[in-house]
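hiii, so i know i said id send this last week but things got crazy w the move. better late than never?? heres the sequnce for the chain we talked about at the cafe, plus the structure i predicted for it. fair warning i was half asleep when i ran it
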Amino acid sequence: MEVKRVLDKMSVQQFVDEQVSAIRQKVGKDKVLLGLSGGVDSSVCAGLLAKAVPGQAVCIFVDTGLMRLGEADKVKKAFAGKDLQLVVVDAEKRFLDKLKGVTDPNQKRMIIGEEFVRVFEEEAAKLGKFEWLSQGTIYPDILESNGKNAVKPHHNAGGFPKETKFKGLVEPLYYLYKEEVRQVARALGLGEELSDRQPFPGPGLGVRCIGELTKEKLDILRVVDDIVVSEIDKLKDRPKQYFAILTGVKATGVKETSEIDQTSGLAYGARVYDYVACIRTINTTDFVTAKNAKLSYEILDKIVTRITKECNRISRVVYDITDKPPATIEWE
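okay and structure toks below
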């Protein structure tokens, strides 16, 4: 099926100009609240809002406890000195309390989406009157969320509460694919660090940590994911997206100890029964379909060695080589 893209019909600058005009017309003199994740989609939204309605937008970064390692600090650094007001909210306990005992993937997504909006409303009450909520929704989110045979409800496409204090949504990227969003980021001068950043789902690690979400499991996944990303970042030819998953499975493993067997002279191996981690790497042009990126065994061996040595709660590591379809990119 041929994919029709918005930027096939107009230049990037034309798109920027049209969206700036549309935002001004829609928002007027109202104030806008933007959920800023630090990813390319929400960052481009911030750039368009700053251009269209300077001084009227407040960007809120909600630290849900479902973020990558050091994410909050990276966001603060990236937007320091920018012509936007940035508010950082520590909501880890709040989100994990709401998600306690929940294992169904769709229910997790909907809870996270609902809680996002509630946090925004509460922050809006503290900061002043905000009439609009802006989101970095892109077209693949919509395709996967709508209809009877929806693949999965994205929190920004299916989780917006029916009863809310906002007039509505400002979603300037609604009909764009990820690569088009990157082009707009470059046109806005956001820099390669943001424009080329790989995608991170709205529900964060909540869809990469299978089963019930706990701080312990999320902390383990953060370390594993950081190892995967840092090693693949070193490659000259990198996949489009790469990350780690903490599966809902445990397996038997062996951990070295300092005790030495007197007969063989070898270190004893202590039996463990702990988490299985997974590496996921894909290549795609539109994120609607994707192919396994096929990492070399050399780089896989390096990653696995680091994970099993540095993460004492991981008993083994597997590699997901499934295309989309039949699988989705995220595990939940």
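btw The chain has eleven helices and nine strands. thought thatd interest u
miss u guys!!
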